[in-house]
Specification:
The chain is mainly β. The protein has a single domain (3-434), classed as 6 Propeller (Neuraminidase). The chain is 5% helix and 34% strand. A six-stranded mixed β-sheet has the order 1-2-26-25-24-23. Strand 9 (135-138) and strand 10 form a beta hairpin. It is globular, with a radius of gyration of 20 Å. It comes from Bradyrhizobium hipponense. Residues 68-283, 325-434 form the Pyrroloquinoline quinone-dependent pyranose dehydrogenase beta-propeller domain.
Length: 435
């Protein structure tokens, strides 16, 4: 998206209520509450180094009786607790909830009681996995035959019949090697609506592409032979979305320059994949914004040489002038260092009609900012299936004080009854939002 097109989309989706913009939109957790709306624009960004880069890790404490906050008219209730760092959530066609317990190397399956408010059955679906994260049922529709799981270094699949709560057989390897071993370890996975392609997100090995050296054969030859913006060396096939056939063949780079697309989702109205993205650290409190964006095949989103359009990373001065005018601008900019993770589009019937087609994204929370950001679930506003550029705080209340939090949102999914499900890996809980 060009800057002009981005501004047009923002104007088209403008709302009557006050929207925090400019420096007011950067803020911190203290300004967060359900209903707060932010609009961060490329022209609002400060210069690199306008504030120091600060290490400000949080301490996770026990939840106690704390309950997240939701907008007026909504209700939030605890659905499950005692889980081992639950991360991605996926809902099966019959309503069963599959949970990736990444650190434990397993997938858990939850079946809800009638009414959806309580867990009736809690089973371990599969174990012995290597940091499983993304999951996808294949083919799309009401009768999938497989459950695909994205490990940190591979993609595997289990035979699946609707209603299975335990894997009926051992995992079959579909993609034997996804680059791993250092850096970002999460891998998400979706299938295109026509079931012909499997998309897998792979985050970068490092923060800003330092130490990549020179590409094999030189930059000119590399640029001609590789997709736009493709990195090399230890970052080859990373900071990207990869495309495969469902059997793991026909491996290609689908999009590049996306530092860490943690969450992947298909927008139902358009069939386009979207990424919820962690951008780079080390340039100050308010650089670089995380983002949630549609992902276009063949597009380059800037990392590591540029950010948010043609802004050059000062750690790579003059390195890629050939790419400066070829960077695709992301759709929705989010407070820097929020750590935007899982995302899902809302298609349920339980929420008010204005939520139809909007997206939700889980903000895991900052460590590289003097004033804490993230630690919430946001609503990405759409108008006619196009982003307005604005986002709204939807679920907050996970922060205790400047140094402590009890919850770190990771996964979001829409339940069969239209409730919004949220996982957080600080205290190992899953929450259910209804209207």
């Amino acid at each position: 998206m060009t800057l002009a097109a981005w501004m047009l989309s923002v104007c088209a989706g403008a709302q009557a209520e006050p929207v925090l913009q400019g420096k007011d939109a950067f803020g911190s957790w203290q300004a967060d509450k359900p209903g707060v709306v932010r609009l961060i624009r490329p022209q609002d960004l400060p210069k690199p180094g306008a504030s120091p880069s600060v290490a400000n890790a949080t301490r996770v404490v026990a939840r106690g009786s704390a309950v997240p906050q939701v907008p007026q008219g909504f209700t939030i209730e605890l659905l499950a607790d005692g889980l081992s760092s639950p991360r991605v959530l996926r809902v099966a066609p019959n309503g069963d909830i599959f949970v990736a317990e990444t650190g434990a190397g397993r997938i858990r399956a939850l079946r809800l009681e009638e009414g959806g408010a309580k867990v009736a059955t809690n089973e371990i679906y599969a174990t012995g996995l290597n940091r499983p994260f993304g999951m996808a049922f294949f083919p799309n529709g009401d009768n999938p035959q497989w459950l695909y799981v994205a490990n940190t270094g591979s993609v595997v699949r289990f035979p699946y019949r609707v209603g299975d709560l335990k894997a009926p057989a051992k995992a079959e390897t579909v993609v034997a090697s996804l680059l791993s071993g250092s850096g970002h370890s999460t891998r998400d996975i979706v299938f295109t609506p026509d079931n012909r392609r499997m998309l897998v997100s792979v985050g970068s090995a490092g923060n800003a592409g330092d130490g990549m050296g020179n590409p094999p054969g030189g930059l000119e030859a590399w640029s001609k032979a590789q997709p736009l913006g493709a990195p090399w060396g230890y970052e080859a096939e990373r900071a990207a979305v990869l495309a495969f056939a469902p059997d793991g063949k026909d491996r290609k780079l689908y999009a590049t320059g996306i530092r860490n697309c943690v969450g992947l989702a298909i927008q139902p109205q358009t069939g386009l994949p979207w990424c919820s993205t962690n951008e780079r650290d080390g340039l100050g409190d308010d650089l670089v914004p995380d983002y949630v964006t549609s992902v276009k095949e063949g597009a380059f989103y800037g990392w590591p040489w540029f950010y948010i359009g043609a802004n050059e990373d000062p750690r790579h001065p003059g390195a890629r002038p050939d790419l400066k005018d070829k960077v695709t601008l992301p759709d929705v900019l989010v407070q820097s260092h929020s750590a935007s993770l899982g995302m899902a589009f809302y298609q349920g019937t339980q929420f008010p009609s204005e939520y139809q087609g909007d997206a939700f994204a889980a903000e895991h929370g900052s460590w590289n900012r003097s004033r804490r950001t993230g630690y919430k679930v946001i609503r990405i506003r759409m108008k006619d299936a196009k982003p307005t550029g604005e986002y709204e705080d939807f679920v907050t209340g996970f922060v205790v004080n400047d140094k402590e939090v009890w919850g770190r949102p990771v996964g979001v999914a829409v339940a069969k009854d239209g409730a919004l499900l949220i996982s957080e890996d600080g205290n190992g809980t899953i929450w259910r939002v209804t209207h």
